Automatic annotation (TrEMBL):
Family membership: Belongs to the TPPP family.
Gene name of the record: TPPP3
Record-given protein name: Tubulin polymerization-promoting protein family member 3
Originating organism: Esox lucius (Northern pike)
Principal location class: cytoplasm
InterPro entries: EF-hand-dom_pair, TPP/p25
Lineage: Eukaryota, Metazoa, Chordata, Craniata, Vertebrata
Subcellular location, record wording: Cytoplasm, Cytoskeleton
GO BP annotations listed: microtubule bundle formation; microtubule polymerization; positive regulation of protein polymerization
Biased composition, class Basic and acidic residues, residue ranges: 134-154
């Protein structure tokens, strides 16, 4: 029972890594990039016994000649190839079990993904309350942009000069006469 549960977890990890970063992937086949990511994230690559080059060589060895991806069966063959290299002191079966334990239940990590830098300099540069001159006109008191009204001189074609106080009173003056 434990054997089938372990294989199910291994299959789930294979599927998660197979679809990682590829919207069209079905989870039935894994490309070389995702195979290398699986080996790196699950600590199969240790830098001494197993390197990135070893992982690439094993991938090329187990895949079909014209294919660019490996199936789950080929994935298991690749693990059988890497296991004795990774765990040198163990028998083939023990080494394979150890490699399976490294992979089971794991998913791709997003280490090194760029995060938004929140520093004092950024805060100071984006604080609209400290803007001066024409830039100040582009934002309201809450710091939200005014849109087109804040960027352009909107012309009112009323026929009156901009600072004329009695705008709109012409009709009333002509009626009085």
């Amino acid at each position: 029972m434990a054997e089938s549960l372990d294989m199910e977890q291994l299959m789930n990890s294979f599927k998660k890594f197979a679809i990682h970063g590829d919207t069209k992937a079905t989870g039935k086949e894994m490309n070389g990039k995702n195979w290398a990511k699986l080996c790196k994230d699950c600590k199969i690559i240790d830098g001494k016994n197993v390197t990135g080059t070893d992982v690439d060589i094993v991938f090329t060895k187990v895949k079909a000649k014209t294919s660019r991806v490996i199936t789950y069966e080929e994935f298991q063959k690749a693990l059988e190839e890497l296991a004795p290299k990774r765990f040198k002191g163990q028998s083939k079966e023990e080494a394979l079990q150890s490699v399976h334990k490294l992979i089971e239940g794991k998913e791709p990590t997003n280490v090194g993904v760029t995060k938004v830098a929140k520093t004092a300099a950024v805060d100071r540069l984006t604080d609209t309350s400290k803007y001066t001159g024409s830039h100040k006109e582009r934002f309201d008191e809450s710091g939200r942009g005014k849109g087109k009204g804040g960027r352009e001189e909107l012309v009112e074609n009323t026929g009156y000069v901009g600072s004329y106080k009695n705008a709109g009173t012409y009709e009333e003056k002509t009626k009085a006469k």
